[in-house]
């Protein structure tokens, strides 16, 4: 089998991988190359793969156990696949910067997205490097957030999904099944050991240990860290493309600029409980640094 070639999309995030056929099982050398590329680039684009559903699931399983969707969408396919099917953007949460399923205790390690049907114009997905989002914080701000805990809640995503007609379920029952969870605002990547910012506008409800006003203002500043173009890449989809991204250290945003049907299939891979950076023992006093300015 051929060894994949990897070409960076930007200096911060993303790479295109060529010379590999994902329809067949990968050998050890190919698996190692893709794992290394994922850790180095966070987002991998594989063009013109045209996987069927079984091949899509089989590819994901080579990197870990499949994480079954906690909030399944309405479709008749295999339970491992979430079908994202929209005629036009409906504000269901994908058009907010987010990481997948951060509202569960052990969020997915990664997601494998397949482009099934793409509009003639628009419908790109942007990805942001959350290592860089953390690195861009000032030193006083890093000291402030490193020991903080954020509560992630499925409620916001549920309401958006139902409003957008992407899912059909009892919200109260889902809330009982998926109670709020706590994650560090700055988590450590289990493979690279690097700190990264881990809050997102789709699922983070509030910061613990601070006032409501301070939580709202601080979260808005932290969410905005993903908005810098210099730490992003943008994937322009073609039908048959596969994108494999590290859900632990990235956020993504489905650009809501299309007016035709857009169908994506997603398989996610099980992850582990996020943990603090070791240097957080002395961090997280809950006191705002004097030279950090809260938004009004």
Along the chain, the helix and strand elements come as EEHEHEEEEHHEHHEEEEHEEEE
Q: Could you estimate the helical fraction of the residues in percent?
A: 10-25%
Q: What is Rg?
A: 19 Å
- Count of distinct strands: 16
Report the uncertain regions: 281-296
Q: Give the helix/strand class.
A: alpha+beta
Number of helices, counting only DSSP H or I runs of 4 residues or more: 7
Beta percentage is: 15-25%
Characterize the biggest β-sheet. 8 strands, mixed
On the 0 to 100 scale, the average pLDDT is 88
Distance N to C terminus = 57 Å
The general outline is globular
Q: Could you explain how this protein is built, in words?
A:
The protein has 296 residues and is an alpha+beta fold. Helices cover 22% and strands 24% of the residues. The protein contains seven helices and 16 strands. Strands 1, 2, 3, 4, 5, 6, 14 and 16 form an eight-stranded mixed beta sheet that branches. Strand 2 (15-18), helix 1 (28-41) and strand 3 (43-46) form a beta-alpha-beta unit. The relative contact order is 0.25.
């Amino acid at each position: 089998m051929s060894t994949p070639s990897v070409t960076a999309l930007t200096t911060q995030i993303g790479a295109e991988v060529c010379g590999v056929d994902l329809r067949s099982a990968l050998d050890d050398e190919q698996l190692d190359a893709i794992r290394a590329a994922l850790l180095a680039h966070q987002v991998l684009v594989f063009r013109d793969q045209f996987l069927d559903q079984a091949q899509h699931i089989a590819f994901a399983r080579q990197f870990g156990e499949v994480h079954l969707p906690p909030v399944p969408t309405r479709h008749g396919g295999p339970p491992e696949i979430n079908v994202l099917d929209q005629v036009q953007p409906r504000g269901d949460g994908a058009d907010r910067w987010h990481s997948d399923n951060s509202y569960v205790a052990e969020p997915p390690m990664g997601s494998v997205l397949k482009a099934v049907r793409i509009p003639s114009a628009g419908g790109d997905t942007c990805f942001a490097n959350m290592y860089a989002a953390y690195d861009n914080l000032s030193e006083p701000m890093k000291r402030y957030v490193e020991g903080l805990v954020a509560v992630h809640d499925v409620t916001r995503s549920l309401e958006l999904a139902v409003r957008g007609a992407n899912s059909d379920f009892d919200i109260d029952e889902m809330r009982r099944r998926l109670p709020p969870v706590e994650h560090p605002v700055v988590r450590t990547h289990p493979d690279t050991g690097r700190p990264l910012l881990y809050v997102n506008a789709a699922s983070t409800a509030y910061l613990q240990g601070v006032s409501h006003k301070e939580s709202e203002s601080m979260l808005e500043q932290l969410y905005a860290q993903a908005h810098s173009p210099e730490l992003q890449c943008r994937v322009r989809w073609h039908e048959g493309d596969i994108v494999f991204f590290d859900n632990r250290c990235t956020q993504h945003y489905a650009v809501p600029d299309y007016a035709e049907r857009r169908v994506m299939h997603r398989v996610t891979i099980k992850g582990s409980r996020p943990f603090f950076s070791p240097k957080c023992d002395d961090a997280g006093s809950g006191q705002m640094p004097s030279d950090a300015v809260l938004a009004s």
